[in-house]
Hints:
This protein has 262 residues and is mostly helical. The protein contains 15 helices and no strands.
Amino acid sequence: MWPEVLRQGLADHRRSWLGWAGGLLAYALLVLAFYPTVKNDPSVNEIVQNLPDALKALFGTDFTSPAGYVGGRLFSLMPVLLSVYAGLTGAAMIAGDEARGLLEGPLAQPVSRGALLLGRTLTLLILLLALGSVLFVGTWGFGQAFQAPLPAGRVLDTAALHTLGAWVFGALALALGAATGRAGLAAAAGAGLGVGLLVLHTLSAQVAALRDLAWLNPWTVPLRDSPLLHAVSVTPLLVPLLVGLALAWGSLPFLNRRDVGR
């Protein structure tokens, strides 16, 4: 029965997804439309060089090359936007629907809680991957239109790294929501941790202890390793995918034990 849960989940979240996808496209268009005005202005990079180290760790130091501009102006804020979307949507998958009384119907049918969790987990993953696809298409397409051409493979890798990084926090929100039934707590934990780890990434430029733990942060590879310039291995893509699946599936014993909807 999980395919039916998946189909219903995608239908329920279609409208909000369209809103977020349109917002991402508009943001990409706005950022890239300004690139022709800065690409031949070296004073822009001189200004960036005077920023604090924490901000340079987030935005980079090259705003005139296509990769530096797109990475610093567009992708540097994707952890915030994607974490918020993932946290809110992950929390809504089970806890949110439970609070609105929308789970009583599915659970009254011959649907196990495992099938419910699997269907909602795949719903969240598909929504995020689709949003990442929109980010890829918008970044690559507008880059071609506004004199910031980038290899499609590098843009795809970068969009995938950000999307799967956010997937970890969305899966955390889904798991907390399934385990506790508290949508607000789940959304705050998922989105808050995603944004909080972005802040820690910026501080890692100044705090040695944070640099030592950077391998634990899903934002390290997409923000530090310049995936718009260098190819990445499959490992930083596969690890967050598996971590998210483990987080979501780990909530099943808690979901099975509690009284849903009470």
